[in-house]
Design brief:
About 40% of the residues lie in helices and about 15% in strands. By secondary structure, the chain is of the alpha+beta class. The structure holds adenosine-5'-diphosphate (ADP) and magnesium ion. Belongs to the protein kinase superfamily. CAMK Ser/Thr protein kinase family. SNF1 subfamily.
């Protein structure tokens, strides 16, 4: 790194030397930082309290953060620490050095089926791990899928979207401001929904994008997009194998009752190919 004089670097809480901006989201800015002393690289996500966490860090939000801090999994971005100033909340996170997965797809196009499967297996292992602990992502989408320096997947924001939406008091607001292309039909219809089923739908959209190189549901007109999602109106491109086609159909099932569960995915022949046996049984 650069040898900026100490006075030029912003030091947070006497501990983190904040560096360059890594990315921006709807609610947050994420910076590269180094831990003073150990020199460990981390990512620091800054959220303005008045924008999002109107109710402060009380009750539910505090519990959600405690749950997130307990999630330790090779394919989930670790949350090391949560700090707060008067106006901001800082999430100190594991750094994902490879950047966003979908930046790579937009640059290089769709992945061969084997590579798509490997990343999808990593995604499902993270999702299964969280669901078994009662934590749902509810906002799985491209910007939340990062890569490490080995090209392995790291899911970010697990549990965080629940914190944000709890504080917002309106999940739909957040959804409509976010990425409707990944949102399950039952969310659009404003009925109650099951966090696990919603995550599975998003996993289906992500798998489609990995293997096809484009979105299954897409339309410049928002109402048309919603209509396509409601109807589950998508078509697999011809290069998708029959086995993968079948799995996609069972993930992008508009009926949450019949949609595959994590157990169903793990039992799927396309998914199981090349899988190390006991990885999902823990
Ligand atoms: P928001 O919750 O507002 O959507 P994100 O958590 O998605 O914010 O972060 C915004 C961007 O910052 C991401 O899309 C990604 O490019 C980058 N980023 C976030 N977390 C990390 C991380 N742990 N390591 C590297 N880059 C990250
Ligand atoms: Mg995000």
């Amino acid at each position: 790194g650069g040898e900026a004089p100490p006075s030029a670097a912003k030091v947070l809480f006497g501990k983190y030397e904040v560096g360059r901006l890594l990315g921006c989201g709807a609610f947050a800015r994420v910076y590269h930082a180094r831990t003073a002393g150990t020199g460990q690289s981390v990512a620091i996500k800054c959220i303005s309290k008045h924008k999002v966490l109107r109710g402060g860090l009380a009750g539910n939000v505090r519990r959600e953060i405690a749950a997130m801090r307990r999630l330790r999994h090779p394919h989930i971005v670790r949350l090391y620490e949560v700090l707060a100033s008067r106006t901001k909340i800082y999430f100190v996170l594991e750094l994902a050095k490879g950047g966003e997965l979908f930046a790579r797809i937009s640059a290089h196009g769709r992945l061969p089926e084997d590579a798509a499967r490997r990343l999808f297996q990593q995604l499902v292992s993270a999702v299964a791990f969280c669901h078994a602990r009662g934590v749902f992502h509810r906002d799985l989408k491209p910007e939340n899928l990062l890569l490490d320096d080995q090209g392995d997947l790291k899911v970010s924001d697990f549990g965080l979207s629940a914190v944000v939406s709890t504080a917002n008091g309106d999940r739909l607001f957040q959804t409509l401001c976010g990425t409707p292309a990944y949102v399950a039909p039952e969310i659009l219809s404003k009925r109650g929904y099951d966090g696990a089923k919603v995550d599975i739908w998003s996993c289906g959209v992500i798998l489609f994008v990995l293997a096809a190189g484009y979105l299954p549901f897409n339309d410049p007109n928002l109402m048309n997009l919603y209509r396509k999602i409601y109807r589950g109106d998508f078509r697999c491109p011809r290069w998708i194998s029959p086995e993968l086609r079948r799995l996609l159909g069972r993930l992008l099932d508009t009926n949450p009752e019949t949609r595959l569960t994590v157990e169903g995915i793990v039992a799927d022949p396309w998914f199981r190919t090349g899988l190390e046996e006991d990885r999902f049984l823990a």
